[in-house]
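Late entry, evening session. Most of the bench is empty. Finally got around to the prediction I had been postponing all week. Sequence below, unchanged from the version circulated by S.P.
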Amino acid sequence: MSLRKRLCFSLLVAVLFFGGLEMVLRLHDFAFYYNFNADLLGLPLLDLSRLRRVANPTVTFDPRVFWRFKPNQLLSDPEVYRRPVLLNSLGFRGAGFTPQKPAGVFRIACLGDSATFGWSVGDDETYPYELQASLRKRHPGRRFQVLNLGVTGYTSLQGRELFLGEAAAFAPDLVLFAFGPNDRLPALMSDAEHLFAGTWKISPVQVFLSRFQVYKLLRAGVIYLERRRQGLSLDPRTILPRLQRKVSPEEFAENAAAVKRRAVELGAGFILLNVDFPSLPLDHNYSNLKQEAEKAGVPLPPAWTLEDPSQLTAALARDLKAPELDLRELFRHELSRRRAEGEKLPDPDWFALMIDNGHPNAEGHRLIAQALAPLVEATPQFQRYLEAAP
């Protein structure tokens, strides 16, 4: 047999083998791919008995902000979204807008995570939408745009990079900074380390190959072997001592300060939100990890300490000389008021304002907007707008 025939035969065998393996994996629904919490964020969660991953074709990768929504989408998967979500031509939630601010408009940029994005509520139920409607009602004849720049899963570092990289070009008159829960999540590498390492710089070739189950399986094996080389395994005793916050309290303060500095350069105001709710214990990530560490008989890293988000945000607001809205206190006060007035609340009571223990429902978003409106109106930028606008 000639060399050419041998090569063709070998190629045919390889195609049949990998094609058959691909078909078997697809038939068994091993729909795993780049997983935010495992493959790219560095957690050694690969378990060869559980290869499933939830594919997310609605996002694209970005080396600076890690991921972003693809533009011009209607997200309506009933397994993920309780209400349809409209993404505009810039990939943000809500009605479309031009990067260049129209004349005579007071524009507010809302930076945040899934609480700002409005997880499981409608497009007309998020607090940015409600805030815009409230300002228009309170000031007839004036023009307001409240941009919902919240992205699910974002940390304050991603919010900072989004604002410094592109959102500042939207020329906001006021910036709302609403992060916290995702910052406090555990990870083997911080967001700052991922940004420096270029973890999310993924080529189109990698994205294309990730459509194939065989490639995903091979990549999963490479990741598993790399974690083993680092001394990491599925044994929590190898993982827990190395965990850190995705964003430390010091980094959170630096991220907020960087956004405020840029806002001031643009002549914009700045409002800080403490995104925390009475539906969860204080810093539940610390409590859960402490329990796991005690169970495994290993210590947590010395830097992993109990955080009080309310105290942290209040101190930061004083340092930045910025108005602050504490959502934990806001929701707690509202639930106390309703109990005092004899209203029958669900069990647990926070379900009156929450869709789950981390995301407000439509009533919760309306409450946030009502609390934000007077804070917005008290800013010097808003007062100047009222004085200057015809």
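Two things to note before I forget:
The two ends are 88 Å apart (CA to CA).
Residues 3-27 form the longest helix (25 residues).
Will write this up properly tomorrow.
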